[in-house]
Structures are given as structure tokens and as C-alpha cells.
Amino acid sequence: MDSHHFAGDLDEILLTEEQIHTRLAELARQIEADYAGENVLLVGVLKGAVMVMADLARELDMQVTMDWMAVSSYGSGTASSGVVRILKDLDSDLTGRKVLIVEDIIDSGLTLSWLISNLKSRGPESVEICALLRKPEAARVDIDVKYLGFDIPNKFVVGYGLDFDEKYRNLRSVGILAPRIYS
Ligand SMILES: O=P(O)(O)OC[C@H]1O[C@H](OP(=O)(O)OP(=O)(O)O)[C@H](O)[C@@H]1O
Ligand code: HPA
Ligand SMILES: [Mg+2]
Fold this sequence. Notes:
alpha/beta; Rossmann fold; 6-stranded mixed sheet; transferase; magnesium ion binding; single chain; 9 strands; globular; guanine phosphoribosyltransferase activity; binds hypoxanthine; 30% strand; cytoplasm
């Protein structure tokens, strides 16, 4: 689907499909170098990370396994509740595994902060983070992100997996949602 179908709902396109794919390819090269010879377990955080996971995993020229977790802290609003719920847990045992969490966005950081300590308690060898987007001005906790796509302004964004009220996830680019849509 092309971005012009949503044009009236967006204030601005922040990242085009091409910019996203170029950056994911750069991150993939770093990940390949850092994990050479290892079997990495990519943990995608549903549902927002679906597009990042699909494109990053296919860009990686290495052996990986993939698993998924569903957590939710936003519901249908535009601000984090801070309360993280597991909607679907991993199928894999993390004991001794090298885990790379794949996320679409670090906003307040509350979701990842909670997720990191949750996954670290399961005996993995390592837990690192790959996130496409981060909002530095929105941080409520400090997250050590090893592979970061882009820092973005503190505006509510949609597209490339990111939703407002479950919509806009299928937009190929990332754009700033017009405030009139949610206010
Ligand atoms: O840093 P934070 O403030 O915690 O926000 C980031 C999280 O919020 C979104 O998920 P959401 O709970 O909306 O679920 P979704 O992925 O299904 O949209 C996003 O995908 C991240 O997981
Ligand atoms: O800016 C955002 N857009 C969509 N979902 C989100 N989840 C956290 N921040 C955002
Ligand atoms: Mg969401």
C-alpha cells in the first residue's frame, strides 16, 4: 500500500521505505560481525516489531532462529500505561542462548526495561537490543540499545508496524500522525 492512501492522516513522512531498508542493512552488517559463528535467537516483540523482524531477519546472512513475545502497555491510547502485560510468551528456553530483542520503537523505554529484566532472569548468555526507532526526549528509563536505527522527535508516529488503534501498521514508511486523528 502506498503512503498517499494515508496522506491526509499524516503531518509528515519521517522515514521512507528506502531509508529504513538502507539503515536495516547497515545494522545487519554489524550484527553479522558481532555474532559470527553463533546461533542468535531473535526475539520479536509483537505486534509492532513484525515489519522490522521480517526485513532485518531476511537481510541477515547468518544462521538465526526467531521467536515472538506479545506484550502490551499502550492499549488504544497514545501514552504508555507503564503496566506491561505478557499476552503471549516465548516458545523457546533461553538457557545459554544469545538473545537479540527486535523492537520497532523505544518511547518511554518502559516496555523494554521490563522485558530485558524478564528475559535476563531466564538464564540466557546475553541479551541485546535492536530497535528501529528511539525518542530520546520521551525516555523515562535509560535503555542500553546496541543496534539503533534512528532517533526521532517526540511525536506519535505510525507505519512500518507501528499503530494507532491497530491501524496504519501496513504503511511502508514511518510518519507523524496528525494530532486531530487521536485528539
Ligand atoms: O518505550 P515504550 O513507551 O514502552 O513504548 C514502546 C512499545 O510500545 C509499542 O507497543 P504496544 O504496547 O503499543 O503494542 P503493539 O506493538 O502491539 O502496538 C511498541 O511496539 C513498543 O513495544
Ligand atoms: O509513537 C508511537 N507510535 C505508535 N506506537 C507507539 N508505541 C510507543 N510509541 C509509539
Ligand atoms: Mg501499539
